[in-house]
Write the structure tokens for this entry.
Amino acid sequence: MANRWGIPKEVEEYVVNRDLICVYCGVDFSKNHDSRKTKPSWEHIVNDIRISTIDNIALCCISCNASKGAKLLVDWLDGKYCKTKGINKETVAQVVKDALKKPPTHASPPLSVAPK
């Protein structure tokens, strides 16, 4: 049975065992952190709730999750938050590197402008 986020139980179990640190910034989830921001949270690497596979579901810290929001992964990695924290295509976890190799997926279709 899926959890409240619609993540299948077997995917949830796999990801919990795989992602012992934030897939983006590398914060260690096994340590007792004082800040809520460093606790793990569920992440859709590609922001599409319909993709609930081990290739798209990951654990990241609440801080990275809040920063990324609905941004495309490549856009987020190019932003100020990632630059400040030293997060880039080379430093992220393998599951994220693999996602970056795939063609970009847009959260919503691009807007088209009707000719005048």
Remarks:
- Strands lie at 40-44, 57-61.
